[in-house]
Amino acid sequence: MQDGHPTPQATALPTHPPDYPADDQPRLTFLLQLLAAAPNQRLTQGDLKRKLRTRAAESCGLAPESAGPLSARCESLGHVRIEQTRRTVTYTLTDVGVAHLGTLGATPLPGRAKIIPPANDQIRAYRTAYLLLEVLKTTEELLAEAEASDHLNNYARDKLDLNVATARHLWKELADQGLLARSGDGRIGRYSLTSAGRIKLVNAEFDSGHEFRMKGDALAALLEAAREVGKQFAVQSPESDDKPLDPAHLERAILVAFEELLRERHTVTGMVPIHEVRTEVRRQLGDQAAKHNSFDPVVLRLRQTSQFRLVPITDQSMASTDQLQASIPGMGETLFYLEAAHEPAAR
């Protein structure tokens, strides 16, 4: 006490941002970083829960069932925007969330290196082109995840901000989008280009200021992919078809593909993307069966007979250009999903 007045007590400085409790900081940082690294900085509820079934999430004390309360807390602080439609919930990182994430420093998350979000959409596009090209350039077009560091040159590290953790994360994202096929688990996992991945690579945006080098076999594979893309847009007369399609055969193939995809991959939502059904029909019956002039009328006829409903996509930014093109155009909308009809469809 000085001069009859109490001595001021020293106040400890906070050791963490005041808006999150200290024990929640690692979990909420992890959630924000997942959104920052996602395409368009947005994840659906299903995608987010899948990403929380990882060792990295577990090391932060995160589980799929904690996604809701944590994201709600982030929303209350303005860091995340939650949008709910009749069929899905999406989580989007806001500008406020991006700014807050920047204040948390570059400390890696427990159990893993830091995943670095792209600086802008152009860098995001350059990353996709680079990582798909690296798969194409590998022997037999098969890239081993354990060899990720061998595929990151100075351009990738310095200009694209790609480290090993980020590259592995993005290869998984590209596989989720159907651009890569994955075999094996963990670090023994391997990636190969799918047909959609080849099309994406041919149409990808590359950095015009960087010199890309590849061996002759990789160049040949890239040119072949370009030729395949060209064939898809070639105008083909009826006389050029090898043989006429049997509409009944095509109808059965579509129904079987829908039922299998619904059972194996889309039980939760009850909706099967049309582009996945088209891909399966192409695999079984060939390119002609999957073309719009063959495939689309049969699907529309099946809707009229109440085999299933056609559901438009509400946010086209959630799908790739290739996926939208492989859907069915409607009146001012894109019919994107097939849904089982439990009652007669409206005509």
Characterization of this structure:
The chain folds into three domains: 22-102, Winged helix-like DNA-binding domain superfamily/Winged helix DNA-binding domain (Arc Repressor Mutant, subunit A, Orthogonal Bundle), CATH 1.10.10; 121-231, Arc Repressor Mutant, subunit A (Orthogonal Bundle), CATH 1.10.10; 236-340, Orthogonal Bundle (Arc Repressor Mutant, subunit A), CATH 1.10.10. A hairpin with a 6-residue loop joins strand 5 and strand 6 (190-193). Strands 7, 8, 9 and 10 form a four-stranded antiparallel beta sheet that branches. Strands 1-3-2 form a three-stranded antiparallel beta sheet. It has 15 helices and ten strands. Helix 11 packs across helix 14. The model is unreliable at 5-19, 106-112, 235-242 and 343-347 (pLDDT under 50). It is globular, with a radius of gyration of 24 Å. By secondary structure, it is α+β, with helices and mostly antiparallel strands.
